[in-house]
Amino acid sequence: MFTPSEWVQIISTVATTAGVLVSLFIGVRTVLEQRRQREQAIKPFLLFDIGGYGVPIEFRDSSAIPGIQLERALQLTKNRPTGANSMSATEEWGVLRNHGQGPALEVRVIFRAYRVFTSFGCRVLEKAERKAFPYSPSLNNVPPTPSNISPAAAGSFRRLPTPLVVDYDHALKRIDFVVEIRCKDTLGNPHVRYQGLRVFADNMPGKITTTFIEEVFPPNVPWSIFGTPESGDFQMETETD
Questions:
Q1: For residue 32, is pLDDT > 60?
Q2: How far apart are CA 22 and CA 172, in angstroms?
């Protein structure tokens, strides 16, 4: 049995230990909250402005693909018919806005094709097709201008997705994409968001129409955000090749 003085000492020790633990718990919570606030203060949040925009285009007699090393592009397009049939934008397009509190650094956008419309109807691209020319993510990985976007600022593009550039026989009427938006914050932490995009290639002479729609959350992207016909959800991979 403990004596009264020993009980006092035990209770004092327990109380002191409990106080230390409570102080430690409060300190850890404070540090975590401060860290969360710092992370929130530097976190970028990029999305394209929703809506449809007409993009003026022209056709050039060129086998090059913007953003792709020329030697590789010439190999990929060696069967291109002669003539002015390579599509390019004549103005910047897309409004990629930073809604966050911190700057978005090293911004890249990957246009991931989901389905295409031609005179033969609508066709969902197979997984193997999405990894091959002209739909491969490595061929549709595009930086905006500027590539670092400050809070409340926006970037835009001059380069078109590769499937449009190399549609030499003008067979495409529409193509649906899931746009993967990648960047880093000032601590080097990566951030990624996804958004739907419809591109109409045949509804206005001398223009295409780009329509950015809602944010999506892979890997299962509902076909319904793109509108009819029903096509099955888009099972999206996130690797770059």
A1: no
A2: 66
